Please model this.
Amino acid sequence: MENQIAIYMLHNYRTIPQTASLPAEMMRHIEVVGRVLPFKTNNYVVNQLIDWSDVEHDPIFTLNFPRREMLDKRHFATVDKMLSQGAGKKETDAVVEKIRLALNPNPAGQEHNVPWLGKIRLKGIQHKYPETVLFFPSQGQTCHAYCTFCFRWPQFSGISALKFAMKEADLFRSYLRIHHEVTDILFTGGDPMVMNSDMLSAYIEPLLSHEFTHIRSIRIGTKSLSYWPYRYLTDTDSDDIMRLFDKIISTGRNLSVQAHFNHPRELSTGTVRKAIARIRATGAQIRTQSPLLRHINDKPELWSEMWRTQVDLGCIPYYMFVARDTGAKPFFELPLERCWNIFRRAYRRVSGLCRTVRGPGMSDHAGKIQILGIQEVKGEKVFVLRFLQGRNPLWVDIPFFAQYDPHATWFNQLKPAFGEKKFFFEEHGTRRIDTKPFLFE
Ligand SMILES: *Cc1c(COP(=O)(O)O)cnc(C)c1O
Ligand code: SF4
Model:
């Protein structure tokens, strides 16, 4: 049945009827690259989102299925050779792990965001900006399907030392009891919506008690509306999920589903539209976000269409991100200049109701940096930037300038403009920022 999830990974993707039409070469690429990058898809994505008549160029196929170009040629050749020679699993795994570690599995210094409770390091939490805590419930460290560009991929590939998971919800609550500056909890993963309603309630309901009146918003970061909208309609606990949402809202809090949509096609099925309507009927808001990805959504028309459709459906466009420096980044990346051009060409086509979106933004070590534009100031071409969020909140919203660089694809490649030695938020005489988390007083 269509609304029963069937999961496909490396060991069984050949049972997908449509894969029979794939050229043998492409199957080989899936098997080689799929050893390194995360690979998982399901029957909804396969039957309702992918256009199998043109897989070579299909954005949703590229979103889910590993392709040769996603791996560097040398890495591809190494894994390809090992598989051809029938190398043992242990030997192959060791090589694969080495390659993964070379792909910057933990970008933007996320480890600096992991807070302490006395002497205990709270590995399931990231607290970077005072008002919002990210929580990674350990049962939510997977997704209904995997994106080939994912920067959370170490969490799925079993590099345990990098797992930001935490079973101890109690510790999380102890942390929140003494951090009254926190107003928002963002449940993230993986995808927290892979958890069943009991598990989700066990994490959320205690936060609705009088102890936590400072918690005003519960946010759930999820790709489930794209990858498995039946989650809100016909799964065995869909009704319980809706009751949990009702309950959150009945305490006077905001519930925001931070929905991850990469392409307008993900908004086109009757199923996703019903799911959006059902979530909205609880009073929850749906905010949308996506990275900008070459081969998937690198055209302004796709973004303007996506934002318009989202507004039609009652969703609020929220963020456009620059693709992170991890995994298959060379395949997906675009120069920052191109990112800004795509953003503004899309932004100028839509009404103010869509212009709640902010971007293009880079979640770098120092903060969330938005590219405001490219401008010439006294004869020098510069990027104009600002912090949407800063590791130090005092930095937020102050425009600053970097030398124009047509090739730069991430903030760390940019240099200060006007002959300055450092950006305003860097330590005197260095290009470093204070790596200690900002002290939340
Ligand atoms: C984006 C982000 C948040 C949330 O920021 P908002 O601007 O409130 O949406 C929180 N923590 C981290 C680490 C983030 O990257
Ligand atoms: S849904 Fe999010 S966490 Fe899951 S694979 Fe995609 S990008 Fe990664």
Summary: The first helix runs from residue 24 to 33. The first strand starts at residue 7 and ends at 8. The pocket of iron/sulfur cluster (ligand 2) is lined by residues 143, 146-147, 150, 152, 189-191, 223, 260 (CB under 6 Å). The chain has 13 helices and 15 strands.
